[in-house]
Automatic annotation (TrEMBL), chains A, B:
InterPro entries per record: NAD(P)-bd_dom_sf, ODC_Mu_crystall, ODC_N
Source organism of the structure: Maritalea porphyrae
Any Pfam family matching the protein: OCD_Mu_crystall
Lineage, top ranks: Bacteria, Pseudomonadati, Pseudomonadota, Alphaproteobacteria, Hyphomicrobiales
Family: Belongs to the ornithine cyclodeaminase/mu-crystallin family.
Membrane-crossing residue ranges in chain numbering: none
Protein name: Ornithine cyclodeaminase
Signal sequence region: none
Amino acid sequence: MKFDPNSLNIVPFVSVDHMMKIVLQIGVEKMLKGIAEYVEDDFKRWELFDKTPRVPSHSEKGVIELMPTSDGEVYGFKYVNGHPANTKEGLQTVTAFGMLADVETGYPVLLSEMTILTALRTAATSAVAAKHLAAKNAKVMAMIGNGAQSEFQALAFKTILGIEEVRLYDIDPAATEKCARNLAGRGLNVVSCTSSQEALEGAQIVTTCTADKQYATILTDNMVGSGLHINAIGGDCPGKTELHKDILLRSGIFVEYTPQTRIEGEIQQLDDDYPVTELWEVITGQKEGRTSDGQITLFDGVGFAVEDFSALRYLRDHYKETGFYEDLDMIADPDDPRDLFGMVQRAKTPEQAAS
Amino acid sequence: MKFDPNSLNIVPFVSVDHMMKIVLQIGVEKMLKGIAEYVEDDFKRWELFDKTPRVPSHSEKGVIELMPTSDGEVYGFKYVNGHPANTKEGLQTVTAFGMLADVETGYPVLLSEMTILTALRTAATSAVAAKHLAAKNAKVMAMIGNGAQSEFQALAFKTILGIEEVRLYDIDPAATEKCARNLAGRGLNVVSCTSSQEALEGAQIVTTCTADKQYATILTDNMVGSGLHINAIGGDCPGKTELHKDILLRSGIFVEYTPQTRIEGEIQQLDDDYPVTELWEVITGQKEGRTSDGQITLFDGVGFAVEDFSALRYLRDHYKETGFYEDLDMIADPDDPRDLFGMVQRAKTPEQAAS
């Protein structure tokens, strides 16, 4: 990566406001599709990445995590929290920001809000998984949990898989109403349901994305018919699952990064050596995905650092053309690298110099 | 921590330019002293901290690291790189930024440049260690390595320990000249030397802070006289040490966080069970520091996350009164936390809304 000597101190920053404008300018479906391509590309070169389970700091109220990764040329990390009780205080359950840096110099090259970007990459990753795992020609998706992630999931599955109908259910009807309203006029047949059972009628795919931190049972065994693809997004930290264990035992299970999913995913309910397949192995053709029309496939998605990396790469390749970013003076850049102290002294304001 | 509902999206940011102005407004010595107090306070409650060795991503050219920690109420982390060859390209060897967040909500509360702040906290920590380990009434310090860290070390030792004379040596005379120039008129007797031996004459303390990534021998055994305190700062990553092993074997060795120092410090030259004392144990009085006037004491400093946390806490308590900060729109804050999608849609510019 080449550095402009006149702007060594500058790191481009995409604020929340700019990210919203970027999404709107590019178009949410086009951006989901673009990020999905970057995710799929990075999963294809999975073995190249420096992978580590996220680095968590747990408290009673939630968790704060750092998710670093590197492909040897570019380094990326995300800061993200998960605080289920936040919504009661009018705060987001999940907020995030992240950055990319040049491995050769260690200099940051992009800083960005990642609450919105995470919503996009999560939906894009789900759709990539379903593309490789769900029944061919799936047209109907049930969506259990109609919170902040739901519209992004619906549109990702529409644009990447060709889903035509989404069937919404949430224990809070207001959430379903909000989701239906946001999806109106976007080319999807949106059906609001009053139970999970009803939502599942005729669906080839079910997405579960609920937020409570507990061992919940959003889906029970009898609700899961043959051939279903389950896109399980909400079970993503220790003590938080959405599916009854019996469903897992009947399913082909696919994960992002096994060591992390054993801790955070639905499979925390299973033995540590229960066989699972990593998604990248399916995408590269090294392992089989769906083995029969009747098989139940489960994508036990918890979100992995490589996906954030992909989303940040997409952003890095596109933010400039939108014009929606600002320059942050973030890196100390003395004329003589050994003279940090002198640089500070020379920064005196006229008042400080006179005193 | 209470949040203002009108500014949930805002994270205060201290840029490089603002950090320089803050240092100048507060005064570098006063700031070093203040940070040293925060460091000492945090070392006193060491056991409370969530500690983990830094999370590194190594490459041929250097390392990028994340250094997280938490005291249960506040969470902090630092991004930092170490690229020894960077100076050849006119880049900093080390650049850094960091943040604090509220553990209860996971929301970031401060983002800051940390290249300058790291220089300050490194010097402050060294002085805190020397205060507890060096001979009483030490007045003369040798400084081997006169790069970016040297002036901060000299002033920290002046203001916190009462050092009156610094004796400078660097293999590059231009570095010594720069350091002497920067320290002129600051109440220190500055002596430029042409060899390490000369620098050590009459010194009760020696600070080594050189930057080459290699097993170097900045100090050899015969140079180290009885009663000396060695403040070894430059040996701070695998494969980078400054002292001959024989010196270690003659010294009482003090470290920040043993698991990290075994990997990164001078003691990487010793067996994994070689006895060392953690500095916090000395500060809290649980273990002895210097045991005799003739003992050689060695602070094998590599820099630990808690020190960055202390420096960020100091900054958090002081940036506002200086006025040198800006507001970053970093956290997505929809009126309804479940309606992230709707928030994005409502951000349309007039042009986007019309199209």
